[in-house]
Amino acid sequence: METLFIKMYTENPDPAKVELVVKILRKGGVIIYPTDTVYGMGCDIFNTRAIDRIKRIKQLKGKKVDMSFICYDLSHISEYTKSLPTSVFKLMKKTLPGPFTFILNSSNKVPKILNTSKKTVGIRVPDNNIPREIVKELGNPIITTSIKDDDEVIEYSTDPELILEKFDGLVDLVIDGGYGNIVASTVVDCTGNEPEVLREGMGDVDLIG
Q: What pTM did the predictor assign?
């Protein structure tokens, strides 16, 4: 399998290229794309075969797999989460789009989508127009899992051409959106009484609370 490599610009993603990416996703493709933090690997949330491919590529095993949903905005979140407290919704509205992942109690839909036993889902609305425009055109979220190795800072997580070298033949498409960051998103658990920062990343933790 030949991996496509296309250049896209965050400021104004080319609609024709966005459409090409969406066609690949609708056919069950796996893509690597820029976010406002590190590069991510993803697919259409409703394509179980593509999700299984990501698990194999990333060697993710078991029923408790950490993959989040990238959404265009907050308008469709209610489909994938249980009813949100007003304070949580306000917090998300204040910080998104931005480099945060919010862990929320998931609706009954999510375990079926991910074939998982997890009762929570991570939600991302990155401050990057490339994944947002892809999701908008697709009409539903895409899965995201970081390609960053948490154990060491490795160059391929920032340089799109090195990312292509590493994943060539494994994924259908790599989007060159410029150099990525080496710092992941800030993860905020909103399933309890108060928001709790589980991982401090690019997002300003002073905005939480």
A: 0.93
